[in-house]
Amino acid sequence: MPQSGQNEYHSIQRRAQILEKRKSGNSIKDNAFCMDMTIDAVKGVIKRSKYQKDLQNNPRPGRPPALSDRDKIHIKILIERNAFISYQDIIDTAGLTCHRSTIHRWLLNKGIQHRLALRRPFLSASNAAIRKDFAERYKDKDIWFWYSWWFSDEVSIDRTDGDYTKWSFYRTGERLHKDKVQARRRRAGQSQMFFAAMNYERPSKIVTLDGDPDAKRGGITGRRIRECLERYLPDTISEGDTFMHDNARTFRARTVQRWLTRWALEEGVSLTDWPPYSPDLNPIENIWKVLKKRICDSYPELAGFPATAEAKERLIQAAVEVWESIEDEVFKNLIESIPARLKACYAADGYYTNLRRAAEIYKVSLTTLWRRQQGILSQRDTIPKSRKLSDLEEQVIVQFILDLDSRGFPPRLCGVEEMANRLLADRDASPVGKRWATNFVKRHKELKTRFFRKYDYQRAKCEDPTIIRNWFRLVENRIAKYGIRSDDIYNFDETGFMMGMIASGMVVTGAERRGRPKSVQPGSREWITVIQAINAEGRAIPPFIIGAGQYHLANWYRESNLPGDWATATSQNGWTDNEIGLEWLKHFDRCTSKRTNSRYRLLILDGHESHHSADFEIYCEEHKIITLCMPPHSSHLLQPLDVGCFGLLKKAYGREIEHLIRCSITHISKTEFFPAFYAAFQATMTEENIRAAFRGAGLIPIDPESIVSKLDIQLRTPTPAEEEIDPSTPWVSKTPKTANNQAS
Predict the structure, then answer these.
(1) Between these two residues, 210 and 217, which has the higher pLDDT value?
(2) CA 299 to chain centre
(3) Fewest CB atoms within 10 Å of the CB: 248, 505, 589, 731?
(4) What is the DSSP string of 638-673?
(5) What are phi and psi of 207, to 5 degrees?
C-alpha cells in the first residue's frame, strides 16, 4: 500500500471526497478502505480541513468577522419581510460588522440573487398570441406604410422619476413573482398625466390630462379622454391617416369608442388599437423614456420642490419645453424601427425578446448585440480621430461619383483620391493617404469597385443592342430633365491628321495596266490634333488645333488666313491632354454661352481620359454644361462626328495634299497644313453634313432602331480575322500614331 506522505493522497479532489464521505457518516476506517489510503492519512486530511476552517472563521486584523448562525437567521428574516431591502439596511438593522460582499456570497450560496426589480407585467400565452397575430399582419409592410400612422399614448411623469429603480432579492424562478415586482409609486401632487401622439413627419403637441372631479377617486375617466380627443385630434390628424390608440380601460369606455368611430368615418381616418402589454410595439413608449430622462437631467431642481400647485405647474412647463426640443431624427428613427420590431416579435412567437434570444434569432454574437445596445459603435462605423474629410465633404464626393457613373464614365480610385485632395487643398490641409480611396469605398455601401471590361474594335461591332437602347433612353431623360433644346445639343471629339498623308481614291488608268496605281505622298509624318464640336442644328464650333512644338511661329499663319475665332495650341507631341482638354472646354463655353437658347447645354462625348478629369467636370457643373459619355467602343455608331463628319474632312484634306504633291511640294509643314485644312473644313463642315451626321447617329430625331438595325445581332462573337491580332491589346481612345490607325 502506498505511504501516506505521498502527494497523490493529498490532492484537492481526494481531500474533497474524503470530507464528503465523512459528512455522510462513514467512519475513518471505512474512508481509508474506500479511498485505498492509510488511516493516518485520512486523519491528517480531516485534521487539516478542520484547522483551515477554524483559521478562516477566526477574526484577523483588517478583516471583518464571518457571519454567525444567528446573523444568518436574522438576514434571512429581513429578506423574507422586505425583498427590496438594501445591503446597507441589512447591516444597520442586524448590527453587523461584516462587509456587504460577505452577505452577497452567503446569499448566492443559498440561491438568493440580487437584481433590479422588474416593472413589466407578466405576459400570458393569450396575450403573446395576440401580439404574434399583430406582428404577422404588419411585419411585411415597408417603411412607407408607417409614414401615415399616428401613435398615441398617455403617460404619468413624476418630478422624481430619476429614483424609481430598486433592487430586489429573489430565488431562481421568482423574478416575476408578485412580491418581487416593484409597484408604481403614486405621490399626490408630484405627478402629472400627459397625452401626445407622433408620426414620421412631426410630433403633435403634448397636452395635460387632469383628473375628473366627478369620479369616485378623482382619476382619469373616459369623459376626460373624450374631451381631450375632441379638442386635440381634428387639428392634428388628416384624411387618410391611421390613428393607433391605447387599449387602456379609459380608452375602451363607450363614450370614447362611440366618438372615435363617428369621427373616423367623417374624417376618413382609420382606427386601430395596439396589442396589450406591448410597449415594444408602440414607438412612443421610447419617447416617454427620453422625455423623463431629459426632464430629470435638465430640471433637477424639480425633485426638491414641495407638493404644491406651483410645483406641478413648473413640471408641466418643463415637460412641454423638453417635448418641443426633442429632435425630429429621434421620431423618424423610431418609426423606421417598426418593421424590425414586428419581425423580432413574430420570431419570438409574440413573447418578449431578451438579448440572448435575439442573438439566437438573428445569428449574431451576444457580446456584439450588447455593445450595440449600449451605444458602442462597430469599428467600421467608428469615426477615427485622424479622419480628414467631414461627413458633408464625403457625401459630396459620393454624389459626384454616382453622377459620373450615371453618365457613363465612373472614375478610377486615383480619380476619387484627386477629388478628395482638391477639397483638402481648399483649406490648406495635407492630402489623403495611399489607401484612403479604397477605404472610402468600403465605408460607403452605395459604392463598389468593379473591373471594367476591355473590348477590341472587332468585338465592338457585335455590341449588345440593349446597351444601345439604354443610351438613347439616357439621352431622352437628360433632355427632358433639363429642358434642353435641339440647338443646345453638342457633340465633340478629337481627331488626328498626319500632315503628309493623302487620301486613297479611285483613278482612271489604261486598260492594259496591271495592279493598283501608286501615288506618291510627302514624307512628313508629323501629327496635328483637331478638337471639333458641332450642334444638332448644323452649326460647327470653331476648331481647336494642336500642333507639336513649344512655341507658335509667325510663318505658320502668314498665308493661312485662319479666322480669328479659331484656336491653336502646342504640345510636346501634338496630342491632347487634361490641360488642353480644359482649355478647349473654355473655348467651347466662349463660343456657345451667348447663343444658347436654354438654361443648360448637352455635350455628348466619348470616354477619353481628358474628357472626364476632375477640373473638366467641375467646370461643366459650374457653367451648366451637362456631359453624357457614350458606351465604350460605340463612337462609330453613336457619335455624329465619327458617323458623318471626320471621314469627309480627312478625305477632303487628303485631296488638298494630293494637289500640293502635283504642284511639286514634297514636304508638308504647318505652313502648308493650315491653308489645306481650312479649305477642307470649309468644304465638309456644312450645315447639311452636320444635320445628316446627327440623323445618322440616331440623335435628331431620337431613333434607336436605326442604329440597332446596323448591328450584327446574330453574331455574338467576332469572326477571326485573316491576320493575327494580339487579343491582349485593348482599344484606347487616343490620337492615331500611324497612317493605318488614321485610315481605320
Answers:
(1) 210
(2) 37
(3) 505
(4) H-HHHHHTHHHHHHHHHHHHHHHHHTT-----HHHH
(5) -125, 155
Please calculate the CA angle 333-338-343 and round it to the nearest 5 degrees. 135
Long-range CB contacts for residues 374-383, cutoff 8 Å, separation at least 24: 380/442, 380/443
* Bond prior to 718 in cis (omega within 30° of 0): no
- Residue recorded with cell 419570438: 348
State the pLDDT confidence band at 258, using cuts at 50, 70 and 90.
Answer: very high
Q: Are strands 167-171 and 149-158 parallel, antiparallel or unpaired?
A: unpaired
Three-class secondary structure of residue 290 per DSSP: helix
Residue with cell 396575450: 127
Contact 480, 591 (CB under 8 A): no
pLDDT, position 363: 82
Cell of 131: 401580439
**Per-residue pLDDT reduced to its tens digit, 89-98:** 888 888 888 8
What is d(CA 206, CA 215) in angstroms, rounded to the nearest whole number? Answer: 24
CA atoms within 13 A on the CB side of 84: 13
Phi-psi region of 568 (alpha: psi -120 to 50; beta: other; left: phi over 0): beta
DSSP notation for 305-346:
S-SSHHHHHHHHHHHHHHHHHS-HHHHHHHHHTHHHHHHHHH
